[in-house]
Amino acid sequence: MIVHDSSDILLESAKMLNYAGWKTVCNSLFIVFAVVFIITRLVIFPFWIIHCTWVYPVYHYPPFFGYYFFNVMLAVLQLLHIFWAYLILQMVAKFFSSKLDGDDRSDQEECDGSDEDDEGLKNGAGSIKNLGVNRHHSH
């Protein structure tokens, strides 16, 4: 819980830099994040962590269900790291090609609170004439 709370503080600090108009600092921090993510998730994690959990335990213990299950979960996590790295590298490529419209890194729902209201009006939920359509409820 403590780690999650501290990550919220860092996320809010990055959003504040973006909203404050400090685009250069915000973009520089994103590049630093991308480099650290790539190094830790695509180099250190597979070549040190997964290697250690895959190779060394069989010298001390016979393989058992937990050994295989744990290593399969780490392999799945590595596949997710590869996917996330691909998305991050796409953002970096957009950044360097100057095709970044707005800030694609942040959630759109925070900026556009009116989309939910518009969706309700499109479906007829907000119109007065549709209030009496459902007569199956009791008062």
From TrEMBL:
GO terms for biological process: ceramide biosynthetic process. It is found in: Membrane. Signal peptide: none annotated. The keyword Transmembrane helix applies. Residues 100-139 are annotated as: Disordered. The keyword S-adenosyl-L-methionine does not apply. Keywords: Membrane, Transmembrane, Transmembrane helix. The chain crosses the membrane at residues 25-48, 68-89. Its main location: membrane. It comes from the Eukaryota. It catalyses: sphinganine + octadecanoyl-CoA = N-(octadecanoyl)-sphinganine + CoA + H(+). GO terms for cellular component: membrane. GO terms for molecular function: sphingosine N-acyltransferase activity. It is a multi-pass membrane protein. Pathway: Lipid metabolism; sphingolipid metabolism; Sphingolipid metabolism. Residues 1-97 form the TLC domain. Residues 106-119 have a biased composition (Acidic residues). It holds the Pfam family TRAM_LAG1_CLN8. This is TLC domain-containing protein. It comes from Chiloscyllium punctatum.
